[in-house]
Amino acid sequence: MSEQNTPTPTPGVTPTDSPKIGDDGDPILRIEGITKQFGGITALDGVDLTVDPGITGLIGPNGAGKTTLFNCLTGFHKPDDGRVHLYETDITGKEPPAIAQQGMVRTFQIPRELADMTVFENLLLAPMNQHGERLRGAWIRGDQFVEEEQVIRDRAREIAVFFEIDHLLDEPAGSLSGGQRKLLEIARALLTDPDIVLLDEPLAGVNPTLEQKILGRIEALVEDGYSFLLIEHDIDLIMDNCERVVVMHQGAVLTTGAPEAVQSDERVIEAYLGGDDV
Known about the structure:
Oligomer: single chain
Strand content: 15-25%
InterPro entries: AAA+_ATPase, ABC_AA/LPS_Transport, ABC_transporter-like_ATP-bd, ABC_transporter-like_CS, BCA_ABC_TP_C, P-loop_NTPase
Strand order of the largest sheet: 6-7-8-3-9-10
Family: Belongs to the ABC transporter superfamily.
Number of domains: 1
Function: Probable component of a branched-chain amino-acid transport system.
Keywords: Amino-acid transport, ATP-binding, Nucleotide-binding, Transport
Number of strands: 10
CATH superfamily: P-loop containing nucleotide triphosphate hydrolases
Protein name: Probable branched-chain amino acid transport ATP-binding protein LivG
Distance between the termini: 41 Å
């Protein structure tokens, strides 16, 4: 268990030191004509969208296609048509681990922790390309693997301190509260060293105190160079915390823009007041 209980200003996991494509303000994600059908139902209907560095909010009535879009972007569904580019790399239809390795990961509405393992063990599983997990790793340079494992353990402890869950490192992940599980899920995502994290309702069901804690952590991470695409049903929260807002309706992008412009868009007002539950 970590000996620290005071939050640090930045996490132990930071973006790589080398400049990233897109650090000059180019879009991180380019989504072109993404379409997805389930049976005879069109869930996504030619979604065109760019996602810039920083925090982008994604809103829309229930059934608008927000989570389906996340699934198509991160490889959990394969789109029927269209392309997805992460920076200049075409990642369309790749498997989730390959997309994560390119620099994009996601969280889920319902956290997917390994309940019977400790919080610390859940964190240690997150970093990718660990040499000790490969069969050939048993035959070469054992000291290298020991050093790598220590680095991973140190990073896991540091990010646990950052999210103020370090006092829970030895607890079974299944024993955490709903809010703590969401913190664990975001922490695990960051341990993959991503460029962009897709957050699917990370604040749903979270008490106001913890909500502000999570938002504060996200803002600090943006200062460190991370970017986020955030689904939330609390429109005020999105408008107050996101630099750009995307509104989906009936499987397509209705509008995008600064929060002030989106709030005053009559199409957005009609979509939310036309009978769909937010």
